[in-house]
Amino acid sequence: MYELCKNVLEKVSFDKTLFRKELAKAIKWSNPDEKILLEAWCRSAFGQKYEKEITEIFRNSNQAMIITDQENALRLFQGSNP
């Protein structure tokens, strides 16, 4: 998946809106290890052009993961305590 995401991002890097959209999808599809690689690669390949966008999209994805983890923990807790 990582290589596919890189390929897509390279192809859409000419347009900021497309880049943002595809980066958000790539993050959503990637496992945690791939996310780390993807962020490092994005910063290396596009950091000068899209630094703000890369930072914002990765920050938002991390916040979404925290919320999801908290919701799952709450569901588990509620399910185990009738």
Write structural notes for this entry:
The chain has 82 residues and is mostly helical. The protein has one domain (2-80). It contains three helices and no strands. The longest helix has 49 residues, at 32-80. The protein is elongated and about 50 Å long.
Write the layout of secondary structure elements.
Layout: H1 2-12, H2 16-29, H3 32-80
Stretches where pLDDT is under 50 for at least 5 consecutive residues are none
Shape: elongated
First and last CA, distance: 41 Å
The biggest beta sheet is recorded as:
none
- CA gyration radius, whole angstroms: 15 Å
Tell me the quaternary state. Answer: single chain
Helix content: over 70%
Give the total of domains.
Answer: 1
Structural class: mainly alpha
Please give the count of helices.
3
Strand fraction equals: under 5%
Task: Summarize the helix and strand pattern as letters.
Answer: HHH
The residue-averaged pLDDT reads: 87
Question: What would a concise description of this structure say?
Answer:
With 82 residues, the chain is mostly helical. The protein has helices at residues 2-12, 16-29, 32-80.
